[in-house]
Amino acid sequence: MAKIYLSPALHGSDNPTLCPQKCSENTHCGQYMDIVEKRLKALGFEVKRGGPATGTAAMYKRVEESNAWGADLHYVAHTNAGGGRYSMTMCWNDSVNKKAANVLHKHRKTVPTTHKVVTNKDLYEIRATVAVCLYDELIFHDHAGDCEWFHKNMAAMAEDTVRAMCELHGVPYAEPEEEKPEEKKVTSATLYKEPLYVSSTAKTAAGTKSGTAYLWSEEIVNGRVRITTDVKYVGVAGMVTGWVNAKAFSNSSQAVVSPKAGQQVKLTLCPLYISSTATKRSGLKSGTYYLYDGKKVNGRYRITNSKANVGKAVTGWIDAKYVK
Ligand SMILES: [Zn+2]
Ligand SMILES: [Zn+2]
Questions:
Q1: With 70 as the cut, is the pLDDT of residue 178 above it?
Q2: In the structure, what pLDDT confidence band is assigned to residue 172 with cuts at 50, 70 and 90?
Q3: Which ligand is in closest contact with the Cα of 88?
Q4: Which chain residues have CB less than 5 Å from ligand 1, an ion?
Q5: CA of 147 relative to ligand 1 center, distance in Å
Q6: DSSP string computed for 264-323
Q7: What is d(CA 266, CA 286) in angstroms, rounded to the nearest whole number?
Q8: Which ligand is closest to the CA of 15, given by its number?
Q9: So what's the pLDDT on residue 117?
Q10: How far, in Å, is the centroid of ligand 2 from the Cα of 45?
Q11: What count of other Cβ atoms lies within 10 Å of the Cβ of residue 32?
Q12: How far is the centre of ligand 2, averaged over its atoms, from the C-alpha of 161 (Å)?
């Protein structure tokens, strides 16, 4: 498996940034590299990470380690200063290194403004590494907007980098591991002419309720519980049918439900994304859609446009909160 040497910024005299919280160039480059490292390992790459020496010592030590290890790629991540507003990958000026940098450029879709490839013959890590070296200046840390953007998007930026490394080394790319499906505990009971109240305190019933009812919430208030008419309305704001005596649920049954392939979802101007990690939506969707496979990845589900397309064709990704 391809060997990737990771070299996050570790300045001897760390650079201040304009991040919304207490931060520094070394701090946020380290956080970004943590994500890259975790994902590369999950995909099977061999990974070595530079440290703990700082500054010039780190630079020499890292190049020495990278060369001795026989890295296939030496990847450096810093953030920039000087008043610019772009993301940049620097590399040695030869066809092999430029080709690699352009693969990263192709995948570097998550940027605050633009991304460019620039050749460099001066930086020690670029000129002294035997492996291809890609030297990222991810954002400008002297631009407050870019700093805030970086902290919100560094995971997606790291994922772009991982995609590029997969392409460079012929490793099949896979989305991050799916998360545990969201589970909802559902309590139902069959009611027969059960007095239905508009509130927990109403003295007289507004009507009666017969048939299957679901607990909207487990909470009991003044001896009463809220009910709703369908599993999908459990816990959903605005979907309380009314209040009944808690005793009506003394013979209730419980089930655990989680989103399933083919489950219908009704959307109203719901943001659609091209991947589980994309930060920019590709459009807004309204109407009836279906869960493609019911598997949550990075807090999103795949949807499809017809029952026939469940498990066959993906329309795009939506945030889990829109799956009710
Ligand atoms: Zn920061
Ligand atoms: Zn730096």
A1: no
A2: very high
A3: 2
A4: 17, 19, 23, 28
A5: 6
A6: EEEEEEEEEBSSSS-SS--EEEEEEEEESS---BTTEEEEESSGGGTTT---EEEEGGG-
A7: 7
A8: 2
A9: 98
A10: 25
A11: 25
A12: 18
Gap between the Cα atoms of 50 and 37, Å rounded: 11
Residue entry with tokens 């969707």: 285
What is the distance in A from the centroid of ligand 2 to the CA of 176?
Answer: 28
Q: Which amino acid is at 212?
A: T
d(CA 65, CA 62): 5
Listed in sequence order, the DSSP H helices in 79-192 are 95-107, 124-128, 144-168
**Angle at Cα 294 formed by Cα 32 and Cα 291, nearest 5°?**
110
Cα of 74 vs centre of ligand 1, distance in Å, is: 23
The helix-helix angle for 144-168 and 25-42 (nearest 10°) equals 30
* pLDDT tens digits for range 12-64: 999 999 999 899 999 999 999 999 999 999 999 999 999 888 888 999 999 99
The ligand minimizing its distance to the Cα of 152 is 1
The two structure tokens encoding residue 271: 């943001």
Q: Which two tokens stand for residue 199?
A: 């509130």
Task: Output the CA 19–ligand 1 centroid distance in Å.
Answer: 5
**Strand-pair partners of 310:** none
Q: How far is the CA of 316 from the centre of ligand 2 (A)?
A: 37
Q: Which ligand is nearest to the CA of 79?
A: 2
49 C-alpha vs ligand 2 centroid, how far in Å? Answer: 16
pLDDT tens figures, 194-250: 999 999 999 999 999 999 999 999 999 999 999 999 988 888 888 999 999 999 998
